[in-house]
Design a protein that fits this description.
Radius of gyration: 20 Å
Largest sheet: 8 strands, antiparallel
Distance between the termini: 40 Å
Helix content: 10-25%
Shape: globular
Structural class: alpha+beta
Number of helices: 5
Low-confidence stretches: none
Order of helices and strands: EEEEEEEEEHHEEEEEHHHEEEE
Amino acid sequence: MCTCITFKTKDYYFGRNLDLESTFGEKVVVTPRNYEFTLRNHTKMKTKYAMIGMGTVVEDYPLYADSGNEKGLCMAGLYFPGNAVYFEEKENAINIASFELIPWCLGNFSSIAELREELNKINITNKSFHENIPAVGLHWMISDKKECIVLEQTKNGLQIYDNPYGVLTNNPPFHYHDMNMNNYMNVSAKFPTNIFSEEISLQPYGQGMGMMGLPGDVTPTSRFVRTAFYKFNSITDEDEESSISQFFHILDSVSMIKGSVLTKENHYDMTTYSSCMNASKGIYYFKTYYNNQINAVSLNEENKNGDKLETYELPRKQHIQYWN
């Protein structure tokens, strides 16, 4: 289970929680311009734009979970089991395997406006990266500073949804989340007034009672609603430190605490990492479950015209600053 959001103050931010029962060898990965990918459709692609994000590297191939490019276009894949359907290759389509989708989009396009027309030609294929790395059912949130969309391929084909919330979680499909938000139009950050009845005197007995009805569990539908509520009611200064701090506070409100959710396989879900990219400046911030210090890697400090991937290992041990 995962949660992805966009956020705007003076700059534009994009990031996510990745919720999983264990880490997958993820690290911060920088892909330079002109990096060559051999696609499963037997063509080669060289990236126009450098990108940075979280992923794992296998045989010099960056398998991104989320990333942003130097132009501010950002993208994340979120678990979408049962609903995601990948097809065999089709004629007269751009056949892209699911693991190729992030580098293909971010390596070739600078904005959603530029990407939209090509997305309509996409067929997400069922090719696996390796026998022991099968294709995972995903849907994707793609965003730039102007707009946000969701990409889902189901048995009915490819759907592209405008996403006014700038939020995505997991199942059900996005159109359900969109409709479900109407159930919470009465939830408010404001101090409530009695609308139950004019004949009964009812008074709030504590702060936050306007939020009653906001779901508190960690199901995908509840996380979607809660994330949207905190995002749209968020108040913060516009400087960088305040913005990224607020961004991580929003993600923390829907994070998975190890031990709180047991999977069908008797594993414990947890938020293995949280990320926040300042897409306006190309700075990728992150923290991990076992080290909640905010760390950062700047794309602008890298050689964008290099010939190899650059990687940064994640801190797995808590850092504590002692004062005495």
